Amino acid sequence: MGATTSSKARQREATRQALITTARALFSRRGYAEVGLNEIARELALTKGALYHHFGSKAGLFRAVVRQAQEEVADRVVAAAERQGDPWEGLLAGCREFLVASSAPEVRRVMLVDGPAVLGWEEWRALDEESSARHLDEVLDQLMTARVIDQQPREPLVRLLSGAMNEAALWLARADSPAQLEETVAALRRLLGSLRSSPGGSPTRQPPVGRTGSAEQRA
Known about the structure:
Layout: H1 2-30, H2 37-43, H3 48-55, H4 58-82, H5 87-102, H6 105-119, H7 121-129, H8 132-145, H9 154-173, H10 179-193, H11 215-218
Helix pairs in contact: 1-4, 1-6, 3-4, 4-5, 4-6, 5-8, 5-9, 5-10, 6-7, 6-9, 8-9
């Protein structure tokens, strides 16, 4: 009896994962609005009822697809960060990996374009906070504790950095030169570098943007 129950559970999970994989491929190629449930079910020789059984609706299936994409990106970010021996270098490596992973076509459309539009901003943001944003918050906490960056409210910083990187990933997905990734990473390093504390404990001062020369020269 137990073996039969376990076998059925594995079969259900296999069907569920197959639906997510198939739907993700279709959603990433053509977009949420252009893909129907009948097409997804037909790809796997299933009935539409089987899809409803597992996810309840097309939106429910899409939610599972977005969650999977976000978790995969977060796993790549964490792996890249953990390969570094230093928390600061881990932050830089993780941010770079986020840009690379999120700008991939099969991720960008599902996670950054259709995700907020279909699920709504609040639900999409909640999923993001369970994955990449949570890891970003954790590493910023470590860096503040180590006095690498100054103590400050983390939530505004997490949201600002997340928003900047999401926008950069959308732009990179349409970039026509591989050099633009490294240019974006360099800009991000400069942005993050402005958060670092100086040896005396105060933030490292950056030159004013768009202003050159001494006060006497500007007068």
